[in-house]
């Protein structure tokens, strides 16, 4: 039969691994919300980094990283998403029709190429394809560059064409 001291030794390692859940602390949740507010307000700044967000809130970079360590998206991911959301809003705005350089600058991208990569990765469309006039239907995303359709096993191209007729 184990002695009480031996039982306490076995309980200690389990208790050492137990930590309070980070989402339960209301001050952490409020600070995370404030971080997202700063990101939304400063997303158009192409030089915005997680370190800038931490400095704006008066916390360390490590504290900022800990706030989002259990979240599905990092601080840098939130910055990238805020820029993308801003870019998509500008692309839908008729005032910026055809002027991708202005859209890129106002969305926090340092170049049109950066804007192009982000929008293409997210939507499957280039920014130029994404821009629509008020009268036009939004474009439908098609196959991405480099897409090569494959035929079902045992089928030849002429068989598939015959089926489509």
TrEMBL record:
GO molecular function: DNA-binding transcription factor activity; sequence-specific DNA binding
Keyword terms, alphabetized: DNA-binding, Transcription, Transcription regulation
SMART domains found in the cross-reference section: HTH_ARAC
Family annotation (Pfam families): HTH_18
Domain HTH araC/xylS-type: 33-133
Region described as Disordered: 124-152
Protein name: Helix-turn-helix domain-containing protein
Source lineage: Bacteria, Bacillati, Actinomycetota, Actinomycetes, Micrococcales
């Amino acid at each position: 039969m184990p002695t009480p001291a031996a039982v306490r030794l076995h309980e200690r390692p389990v208790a050492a691994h137990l930590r309070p859940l980070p989402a339960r602390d209301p001050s952490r949740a409020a600070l995370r919300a404030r971080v997202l507010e700063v990101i939304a307000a400063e997303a158009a700044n192409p030089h915005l980094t997680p370190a800038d967000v931490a400095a704006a809130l008066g916390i360390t970079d490590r504290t900022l990283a800990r706030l989002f360590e259990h979240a599905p998206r990092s601080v840098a991911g939130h910055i990238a998403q805020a820029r993308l959301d801003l870019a998509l809003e500008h692309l839908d705005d008729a005032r910026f029709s055809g002027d991708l350089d202005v859209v890129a600058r106002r969305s926090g991208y340092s170049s049109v190429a950066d804007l192009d990569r982000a929008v293409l990765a997210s939507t499957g469309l280039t920014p130029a394809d994404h821009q629509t006039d008020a009268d036009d239907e939004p474009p439908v995303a098609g196959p991405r560059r480099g897409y090569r359709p494959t035929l079902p096993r045992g089928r030849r191209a002429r068989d598939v064409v015959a089926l489509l007729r």
